[in-house]
Description:
Elements: E1 4-7, H1 13-24, E2 28-33, H2 37-47, E3 51-53, H3 59-72, E4 78-81, H4 96-124, E5 127-132, H5 135-139, H6 145-165, E6 170-177, H7 183-186, H8 190-198, H9 208-218, E7 230-233
Parallel strand pairs: 1-2, 1-4, 2-3, 4-5, 5-6, 6-7
Helix pairs in contact: 1-9, 3-4, 4-6
This protein binds NADPH dihydro-nicotinamide-adenine-dinucleotide phosphate.
Domain Ketoreductase: 3-178
Keywords: Oxidoreductase
Family: Belongs to the short-chain dehydrogenases/reductases (SDR) family.
Amino acid sequence: MARVAIVTGGTRGIGRAICEALKAEGLTVVANYAGNEEKARAFTDETGIPAYRWDVGEHEEVLEGCKRVEQEVGPIDVLVNNAGITRDGTLLKMSFQDWYDVMRINLGGCFNMAKACFPGMKDRSWGRIVNIGSINGQAGQYGQVNYAAAKSGIHGFTKALAQEGARFGVTVNAIAPGYIDTEMVAAVPEAVLEKIVARIPVGRLGHAEEIARAVAFLSSEDAGFITGSTMSVNGGQHMY
Ligand code: NDP
């Protein structure tokens, strides 16, 4: 039987490319989304992949949503924590709400989804968790104390949970994308974007499919000896 994968924030951007890459690998894929019904409908019509709505930042909603997926589709073997938002601003201008929303969704979402999916993976002695971090969680970024803290937290979360999952056949890894040409980056002013691209050694933004292929590998049987690692996919922008 095909393994079942769930991709949070899977209906557009990087998440959509991940859903399509995992489906192409033969997995049964389910996407989650927050509330953009139009995008979700178009996604399901075009890909044939079902989309389930819940807020990854809300613990009870996540537990209920994942239970529904397991009843309707099957036990979840692969979890891709991709859902994320930005609420940028310098510390002086950032509200507590902007801080809290980003921490709740970007980092809290990983905790909530892992709480729902990890126990079953452990019981079945096989699982893959791939968390989408960010170059800005590794290197920091002006105007993003909330986002950088949450993404940096994802990298710590990954290494800690990897230690808990290792002896149960559950690997936990992160991908740290650089700048990828999705709607999230389209929101960056053009002048700022030009400066960003000038700092990327390969001289261009990344494509969502380039992140998706890395996720597909880390989700595969072949990646069983890789756990607790962060794969940077950033065109050489940040090396360490
Ligand atoms: P997009 O803004 O294009 O898409 C975000 C997706 O997340 C949508 O499907 C959205 O659902 C969903 N989402 C947002 N909030 C929630 C929530 N509370 N609960 C469930 N789903 C939610 O993002 P990208 O594709 O650009 O980014 C994907 C991930 O990659 C994010 O974690 C981002 O931080 C990370 N990343 C992106 C980079 C980039 O350059 N684009 C660089 C580095 C990291 P809906 O459509 O319903 O709103």
